[in-house]
Design the sequence.
């Protein structure tokens, strides 16, 4: 406030000494400065909000990517362990591509409330208004540790796009066929999505 007061005193001094024209110029100049300051203040907030939204989306995408990589690594490890036990396979390496990760379908507690209201209009006619309110909440159970966990109806396995198996014994056509059949059975995917290659 003291800065504004000094500025107004300065304007009064100049206006009294130089006349009305200078007073008008300074008034317009002051209005212009106020408009510039207020517009820069209001324009800076939406940019901040947009950046925050971008940060949240990036964090969610990173979380999805990490989860997908973890799921992929688990399936690869389990498949590798199984294939290593096949007679003649030797050392085995596995790499797969996921189309989607595991999906969980939780149980919901659904409550529906139906309310019918009778209304009479000005001409004596009666009409009925029915209102349906539905609320849906995920059913959770509390564990001994105190954490809440959703009740799961079913789990949908991750969709596998394809798999590459590199094995020492893949030069042998019988071993190659056994590796393909094992991967087909374990992953529940058709043979054309499985590629078995010999190791160097």
Sequence:
């Amino acid at each position: 406030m003291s800065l504004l007061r000094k500025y107004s005193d300065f304007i009064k001094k100049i206006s009294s000494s130089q006349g009305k024209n200078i007073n008008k110029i300074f008034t317009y100049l002051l209005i212009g400065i106020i408009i510039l300051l207020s517009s820069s203040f209001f324009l800076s907030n939406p940019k901040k909000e947009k950046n925050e939204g971008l940060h949240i989306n990036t964090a969610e995408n990173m979380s999805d990517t990490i989860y997908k990589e973890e799921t992929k690594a688990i399936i690869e490890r389990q498949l590798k362990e199984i294939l290593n036990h096949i007679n003649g396979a030797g050392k085995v390496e596995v790499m797969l591509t996921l189309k989607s990760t595991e999906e969980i379908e939780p149980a919901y507690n659904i409550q529906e409330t139906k309310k019918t209201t009778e209304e009479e209009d000005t001409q004596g006619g009666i009409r009925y208004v029915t209102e349906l309110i539905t609320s849906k909440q995920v059913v959770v159970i509390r564990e001994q540790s105190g954490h809440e966990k959703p009740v799961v109806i079913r789990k949908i396995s991750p969709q596998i796009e394809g798999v590459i198996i590199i094995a020492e014994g893949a030069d042998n056509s019988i071993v190659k066929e056994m590796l393909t059949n094992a991967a087909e059975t374990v992953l529940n995917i058709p043979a054309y999505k499985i590629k078995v290659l010999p190791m160097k």
In short: The two ends are 80 Å apart (CA to CA). The helical segments are 2-18, 20-83, 173-187. Residues 45-52 have pLDDT under 50 and may be disordered. Residues 74-104+155-198 form a domain with the GMP Synthetase; Chain A, domain 3 fold (CATH 3.30.300).
